[in-house]
Structure formats: structure tokens, C-alpha cells
Specification:
This protein is of the alpha/beta class. About 25% of the residues lie in helices and about 20% in strands. The structure holds S-adenosylmethionine.
Length: about 270
């Protein structure tokens, strides 16, 4: 059994969604529903919890990323949503995201890289896995950029470690990257974001998976976790949007649902 498979996580039963962490601050939303107040936690009933235990959780992501990709990760498997996240596509469609240069750390097959690309926005995907880069290059070679032109005209995937990467970007899209790194590196993640994003530039964080369970990846996230990371790192909130049910990109185990798009500006 490969190291990767051995590391694949069994994520334990979630007891509640983390939406109770939402701040009471009212924020503007461009897509989906405006979120501005606490919601009561959703609790799983005991029957559901037993069922999930029987199912033995999910096999989701490995930390040995190259092994996971090299084992053959097809579109739609594990974290791969086989398309750009529909909620994020709606946000792109508003035309309000910064132009210039964009970064997608841990870009995987590169769906978001292509969707963000345009004559007005050059996009870089970052990957540590050479197999992931090959998969992204193959995808981008036939994909259309956001403005309908060939994705290869505006999009590039580079092999580099996010934590040591250097550059200056107008926009970063973090999707299933923060939840993939060990929680012990989260502050480093925020500090690195503040170095990589220009003053006035933005980060959009797809907050997923929502939960308060132990272990990962994917490690559970909440809007509060993202706030507690980005506020001290020098960012201010632009908008917080709950992605509508019909636009969710990924399904949850254990019947839990939900994604938020959290948009922040570098001060
Ligand atoms: C959970 S996957 C998400 C992929 C993609 N964002 C998606 O949603 O399909 C995390 C990705 O991050 C990459 N990765 C992990 N650590 C990284 C790092 N330090 N720098 C750059 N990429 C990294 C992995 O190879 C993997 O493809």
C-alpha cells in the first residue's frame, strides 16, 4: 500500500456545522445570500452518527500529494470537482474581481486557473505535484479562459511551494488549499498571503469543509478560522457569501452541506 493511501484520512463524525462562528458584522455579497448573523448549529441525530460510523467516514485527501496524483486521480475524484466551483464562477461573472495577475495555490487540475484567465488577467497556478501540473497542463491545453480565448494564452501552472513562493498578485483564489495544509501552518499561510498580495489586492477563500471534527486533510474550516487568520495579517472583509445549495461544488460525507465565499482586501 502506498504511503499516500496509508495516510488517507478517515474523517470522524462531525457534531455540528460551524456556521455559528459567523460574525454579526453585515457584509455585502455579490452572489448568493448575504450573511450577517448567527445561525443555530445544526446537529446530527444519533441515528445518522451511527450510520456514518458504520460507513467508516470518507477517504478524501492524502498529504503525500505527488503519490496521490500519480496513483491516478481522475476528474470528479476526491477533491477534484471536475469544474470550477459554480459559486466562484458566479463571482467571476460579476466582473468585480481584481484584474492584473492572479494566483491559485494548490491549483490541482486548474479549473479555476482557466476560469479566471482573460486578456485582462494573467493567472498562475501553483503546484507541488508534477503529476498535478501535467494534468493541469493537459486540461488547460483544451480549456477556454474566462473570456472565451484559449486558456493557454493567459494561464500558466508552475511547480513551486506556496510557502516559499515569491511574487506579487492582485488576486489569490484559495480553494481547498487552506483545508489541505496542516493547521499548524495556518498562520504561515496568512503571513504568506499578505506577502503575495499587493496592497488593495484581494483573496477569495472558498471556506470548505465546514465542520468541527478532528483530523484531516481535509481539515475542518469555518468562517471564524479564516477571519482569525486574515484580520491580523492585514486584510479587511469585502464580502461573505453563503453559496446557494444548487451551486455547491462538492458533496459532504455525513449529510453536512455548505460552502462560503469569503472575499478580503489587503490593506
Ligand atoms: C486538496 S487539493 C486541491 C486542488 C484544487 N484546488 C482543487 O480544488 O481541485 C490540494 C492541492 O494542493 C497541492 N499542494 C499541497 N501543498 C502545496 C504547497 N505547499 N504548494 C503548492 N501546492 C501544494 C497538492 O498537490 C494538491 O493538488
Amino acid at each position: 500500500m502506498s504511503h499516500c493511501r496509508a495516510r488517507m484520512s478517515i474523517v470522524r463524525t462531525c457534531l455540528s456545522l460551524s456556521s455559528r462562528h459567523l460574525t454579526s458584522r453585515r457584509v455585502l455579497s455579490h452572489v448568493g445570500r448575504v450573511v450577517g448573523s448567527h445561525r443555530p448549529p445544526v446537529r446530527l441525530n444519533p441515528t445518522h452518527r451511527r450510520t456514518e460510523k458504520k460507513r467508516n467516514g470518507i477517504v478524501a485527501m492524502g498529504e503525500d500529494w505527488e503519490s496521490m496524483w500519480a496513483a491516478g486521480l481522475e476528474p470528479g475524484q476526491a477533491f477534484d470537482a471536475s469544474r470550477v466551483e459554480p459559486g466562484f464562477q458566479d463571482l467571476i461573472n460579476t466582473g468585480t474581481l481584481p484584474k492584473g495577475t492572479a494566483l491559485v495555490p494548490g491549483c490541482g487540475r486548474g479549473y479555476a486557473v482557466a476560469a479566471l484567465g482573460s486578456a485582462e488577467r494573467k493567472v498562475f497556478g501553483l503546484e507541488v505535484s508534477t503529476t498535478a501540473k501535467a494534468a493541469a497542463d493537459a486540461y488547460l491545453s483544451t480549456a477556454k479562459a474566462g473570456d472565451g480565448s484559449a486558456a493557454t494564452e493567459h494561464c500558466t501552472v508552475v511547480i513551486d511551494d506556496f510557502f516559499t513562493h515569491t511574487g506579487q498578485y492582485d488576486l489569490v483564489y484559495d480553494c481547498t488549499f487552506l483545508c489541505a495544509i496542516p493547521p499548524s501552518r495556518r498562520e504561515e499561510w496568512a503571513t504568506q498571503m499578505s506577502k503575495l498580495i499587493k496592497p488593495g489586492g484581494e483573496i477569495v477563500s472558498l471556506v470548505f469543509p465546514l465542520g468541527d471534527y478532528e483530523g484531516g486533510p481535509p481539515f475542518a474550516l469555518s468562517t471564524k478560522i479564516v477571519e482569525d487568520l486574515l484580520t491580523p495579517a492585514g486584510f479587511e472583509v469585502v464580502s461573505l457569501t453563503e453559496v446557494p445549495e444548487e451551486k455547491l461544488a462538492r458533496t459532504y460525507p455525513r449529510g453536512l452541506r455548505g460552502e462560503y465565499l469569503y472575499r478580503w482586501r489587503r490593506l
